[in-house]
Structures are given as structure tokens and as C-alpha cells.
Amino acid sequence: MTTQYKDRTLIATIGDEDTVTGLLLAGTGHLERGKKNFVVVDSKTPQSTIEAAFAEFTERSDIAILLINQHVADQIRPLVEKYTQAFPALLEIPSKDHPYDPSKDSVLKAVRKLFGDA
To answer: pTM here?
Structure first.
């Protein structure tokens, strides 16, 4: 691993309460100087809050992976589609109430385009 990525040790999460709670119980939570690596999204969460969390987590140098519920990613799809950095790796995940749809996944779309299947 190159030195520029050695400090990327955290997994950040943007998702519904069940997803975030499960990942926090699994040990992914981190709180330092008031900065946390997770955001709980519900039906009342403004899109601007989701966008701000996405921007913060993708710019932080301590985050290696950003997990986002696919139905939350749909709310900020233009930002997700525009994101092309390798780190933090962006992974869309299902939630209890919203099944995963591979046709919406930005990473799978990029892979299909790379192989000429798009």
C-alpha cells in the first residue's frame, strides 16, 4: 500500500437507521473531535444534508470505504455518478426495506461501460 493511503482506516456509512445501527454494532463507528463517520437518513432528512455528508466523506483522508444505501444514493444520484475516485471506494448497499438493484449501481455501470456492455 502506498503511503498516501496508509491513513485511510475508516468505513463511513450514509444510510437508514437499521443499516447504520448494524454497522455501528459491527464496530465501524468512529467519533473524533465531533466528527463522526456515519449519517442516519430518514424520510425527513433534507437532500442537502445527504449531499453535505457525501462531500465530506469523499474528501476526508481517513476514510477508505464509503457505504451508502442504494435508495439514499438515488436521492443524490448525479453526485454519485460523477464520483470517480478510487479512494474512498464507494459501495452502494441494500437496506432492509429497499432491495438492491444492480442496474442503478454506479460502479457496475462503470464496469459495464469499460467492457462495452453499456
So the answer is: 0.87
